[in-house]
Amino acid sequence: MSARTASIRPDLPQKRESEALARWRSDAQNVPVTPAFGHEKQSLHAKPGSETTGHDYFGQNPPPLQGNVISVTFTLPRILYKAGKLEWDTENRFWRSGHLDCLLHLAQAPLRQTVIAWTGEINHLDEKLSHSPAEPSSTSIAPGGHAEEKEDSNIDGAVIVTTEEQKRLETDLYQTCERIVPVWLYLSTERKEDGIELKNQSRWREYAEHDLYPLFHYKQREPTGGGDERLRWNDYHQANEAFADKICATYKPGDVVMVHDFYLMLVPRMVRQRLPSARIAFILQTPFPTSEFARCLHRRQELLEGVLGADVVVFQASLYAEHFANSCARILETQGGPEQIVHDGRCTQLVHIPTGINIQHISQHAFNPTVDDLCKEVQDSFSGKKIILGHDPMNSLSGLDKKLQAYERFLHNHPEWQDKVVLVQLTSPALLEVGGTEEADFASRVNLLVGAINARYGSLGHTPVQLSPLPPQQDAYLALLRQSDVALITSVRQGISTTALEYAVCQRDARGTLVLSEFSGTAGALSAAVVINPWDVAAVADEIHKALTATREDKVVSHAALFRQVQDMAVERWARKLFGVLESIPLGDSHGDNPSPIIEEQ
């Protein structure tokens, strides 16, 4: 097999908190764990640079890199639908907003950017229209930000894209502000005389999401006999090879290649074989596990060597860089340490540059008349009560069960708060992982915990836990961020928490308290937050009480320190730091004259 590249709001009833939450939920079914701000629906025909006013994201002294930036990400920042012959419909692909902010910032930076990405699963427009906004979604949000789609609506679940339609879409995508160059993924048997017939499109995600994502979050799967793993690996290799082909076809001398995340771990080395002097960065958005887990990886050697094809590997926390270096030393017998690795005569730098957010955009959206009105509604709905806000995916990695246990312990230990506080918990649908029901079981456990707390501590006019199965609209989410007294994040494993960063920005007037899990990659950069161990339920309950009873003066001081740290993670500083590292790398000097053999598909 070979892949080819080619409003009016009614008054709220008094003391009906649950109805308030229901009103704010978005009609959109594919919603982000953290919404992307300022990324309104955009025509495919928008011209580069026409979306927003340009901004110097590199400060007064932009780096002296002379080439363009090739940002390589697994899926497009849009979901594609076939609307008819030569016609395409699109909507925003809601993924981690920090990642999207990075792409948009680079699109407006002094350096010209091209985004290379897979089209994602293409469906017919009637698939989009068939979802009823009044009913719960049948989709689920996956690690890469995509939605698990229903089978395609036409015969045999196939989507036929003609050569002419491919060319039309490629032209339209390149004219967007991000200058997108799509990667078409399909089997050789799906190539037809005048186009391609796409079937089983989710196959290209399966190895990354079934094998890599769980293990990177310290969840090891049981072996299944080898056959399925081999098929998933072949598809993963094939997809990475298609990306490498497209990069090499797009690259010009002096360009910088930035490869994003675990879907594309083989790409840096594949590109290095063909472009020995290219500057290549690999940015991992997730945690990286200890060597004890990494050694359990299927194709561990190929994956690590694939990443080491980059000049720079970027992690969200220094601990993840240490884990990666230890894994390379034990599996590949590399030399060096947590800052630099030497393998096969090549040197790869390891750095931790946490992905930030667009503070300016969030501030503009959070502090406007529409959100001001919604803030008043939040105040009226929860009058006389403190608000604790949670915002997590409905999966075991979120630690949502531990959050609820700590909240119940807090209510038990401090009965004076039982009718004076509410936990507003926003969630996204559970990821239904391939071959198991673990996340569905977790969602059931969460619902049981919520029911038990509300039954024991609730009353006719008070519901202690407000659980929303769908995140609210963007403005309502911002209003909740502004009005919450505490943000509680209890993830048991997480790369970066954009919710934590957004909360700090939205609390410029209220000065609420951020309680953050030490197992979030954000914790290392936000030492001014209240950092907790989510497994210690009693301690978390105590910290909730301290946060709710803190003095105004203490909250002002801690928020000032927290906001300074968030500013240091702003996406423009992220870009400046990364390009500073890349600019320091001599072209053609760090990779030797004998690159290692290309990874073979098996």
TrEMBL record:
Record Gene3D superfamilies: Glycogen Phosphorylase B
Annotated Pfam families: Glyco_transf_20
Skewed-composition ranges (Basic and acidic residues): 12-25
Region feature (Disordered): 1-25, 127-154
Molecular function GO labels: alpha,alpha-trehalose-phosphate synthase (UDP-forming) activity; trehalose-phosphatase activity
Lineage, opening ranks: Eukaryota, Fungi, Dikarya, Ascomycota, Pezizomycotina
PANTHER family, A to Z: TREHALOSE-6-PHOSPHATE SYNTHASE (PTHR10788), TREHALOSE-PHOSPHATASE (PTHR10788:SF123)
Transmembrane segments: none
Name by which UniProt lists this protein: Glycosyltransferase family 20
Keyword Disulfide bond listed: no
Keywords assigned by UniProt, alphabetized: Transferase
Gene Ontology CC terms, in alphabetical order: alpha,alpha-trehalose-phosphate synthase complex (UDP-forming); cytosol
Biological process per Gene Ontology, one example term: cellular response to heat
Transferase recorded as keyword: yes
Top-rank taxon, per record: Eukaryota
